[in-house]
Amino acid sequence: MALTLMDVSVVIPTINAAGLIGKAAASCFNQKYEDGTPISTEVIVIDSSSSDNTVEIANSSGCKTIVIPVNEFNHGGSRNRAASIASGRVLVFMTQDALPVNDTLFSALLKPLTDPLTAAAFARQVPKKNANPVERFSRTFNYPDIGMVKSKDVIGLLGIKTFFFSNVCSAIKREAFTEAGGFPSVIMNEDMMMSSKLIFSGYKVVYEPSALVYHSHNFSLIQQLKRHFDIGVSLKENKMLNYVRPDGEGLRYFMTGIRHFLNDDTQLPSYKFLWLMYFVLQTVFRFIGYTAGTHYEKMSKPLRKHLSTHPSYFE
User: How do the domains of the chain map onto residue ranges?
Assistant: First the structure.
């Protein structure tokens, strides 16, 4: 059957998203193919017992909803639960704070899936207007305007970047998702682990820069440390550290950032220096968190919980 006839099921985990979910759902239901044909879409919201009226807004917007206790949320398991009631042949995963830039986001994501060997695609993240200069650089670095097709053939060249994939906005063929056993129940990086499963199974995963979604965060230094602690834990638990090279993506990110802020003519010299220093400091906090996460087994449970954004994971 032609891809243009595919139904899409969108899965969005939420918590206290009353100010976001209505607009996100409306944008999903308004998606069209390039010829203007509406894309048949359902939106499934899995909510972690929000204290606001997220669920009520989702229901009134036409979404299916599932409510779970907040301590039962898991990046992989919760998405699997929502996917289990999906009827679409393509599963689109989004976060509550991701917003389509236009009404052809899904169309652009679906296009690479016409290749029988391509199982998944993910979108380019465009920083929001309030993103600070370091966050803008980070989004541009990780989500450039050049696409990429990733497979087993490029592991030697790209290392762990081969498996980079983001559930901020992604599309996975339901058949391939089921074949892979769904997302693993992990503290973080369920998207990367899914990508690695698909690639090792012989599929291709595509980064599609014409699929655009607004998404960014001005995380504090401590938030960055905790997020990267969880990333380190995830990579360690899932035996992905063998694909991390000392001269790999982390070093490239740092050196590219230094050059970017030294040559940033959009900032006054004094602000340029301040943002350069903040970039360096943030990178240090990221590195400390990541390194600690890769050695989490040597830590006490209270320390693991203190360093993590998901302390209940270590219960």
Answer: 3-214, 221-314
